Amino acid sequence: MSGINQSIGSFAAGITNGSDFSRYATKRRNYIYGTIASCVITSVLVSLVGLVTAASGQKIYGEVYWNPPDLLMKMMDNGNGSSGSRAGVFFLAAGFGFAAMFENICGNTIAGGIDLAGLFPRYINIRRGAMITFLAAWIVQPWQLINRATTFIQVLSSFSVFLAPIIGIMSCDYYLLRKRKIRLSHLYRTRDSIYYFSHGFNWRAIVAWICGWAPTIGGLVVTVKAELHPSRPLVQLYYMAFLIGFFISATVFYVLNLIFSVPDMDQMDSVDLYGTFTEAEAKRVGVAPLDENIIYGVVSTQTSGDDIAAYRGQEKGA
């Protein structure tokens, strides 16, 4: 279970940030194919190459080098600083550097930029938010998180502790409560939006998130402190952090929404305000396409679907 927890933890951040990129897909299957290619095929190949490289390094140098910089330094020393060893290490290091840069741009800075732009849209756009995230990353000193194998594994496991409850809440909210329906016009409003909740905060989600990580945080603490005789129940719960956090948070969130219900959770606009769907897609989901004269100024795009539907009814009556 520990290995499964660590493996899922490595994907947890990508799962929570998936919507930052899926919204740009023109077709649902495009995002599915891309996810399979990047998360399944590529990850398996990278893990396989890493295992083969570590095993080969042990055979050649008599020691296991799991950290790429350590292996590169060993290659340099073993080559006695020759031009061939320097060239090989240079190109390998460049590959690692570009891979880390691209991964952080896609997985961290863009996601952070979108989040900050959503929180402070008046002052921050996605580009500014990405730059702020990039600068803030240096304060965290992420290189300290991978300086040892045990620390790296603990970091991956901690992702499951805190992100699994978020994934559970998101899944429950979208699939069970909203039934995969989103009212787009209300996403760009404040006080008159069904997504504004209590002064902009959905307290149900906060409570459910805390309930999700509370049972497993103790195991994370004793693991990080490297206690010699940690409590066995805490460690066992920690090894199942993703499953426990996911299902506890999803269940608590669902129950809280049954007791303290939010009105119109499974509603969507009756008119395609933003031209999101093709004519066939709009017909399939039961949304009326918006006329061009309405799109270009007869009725503001900030008007709700119900208001536009009423407007169109008045036009027909006239």
TrEMBL record:
The alphabetical list of record keywords is:
Membrane, Transmembrane, Transmembrane helix
| Pfam families tied to this protein | Transp_cyt_pur
Q: Which InterPro entries match?
A: Pur-cyt_permease, Uracil/uridine/allantoin_perm
Name the membrane topology term: Multi-pass membrane protein
Primary localization class, coarse: membrane
Keyword Cell cycle listed? The answer is: no
Does this UniProt record's set of keywords contain Lipid metabolism?
no
Annotated Gene Ontology MF terms? nucleobase transmembrane transporter activity
**What's the domain of life for this entry?**
Eukaryota
Location of the protein in the cell: Membrane
User: Got a GO cellular component term for this one?
Assistant: plasma membrane
- Extract the PANTHER family matched here: ALLANTOIN PERMEASE, NCS1 FAMILY PURINE/PYRIMIDINE TRANSPORTER
In the record, the note on similarity to other proteins reads: Belongs to the purine-cytosine permease (2.A.39) family.
**Would you tell me the protein name for this molecule?**
FUI1, Cytosine-uracil-thiamine-allantoin permease
Q: Which organism is it from?
A: Pyrenophora tritici-repentis
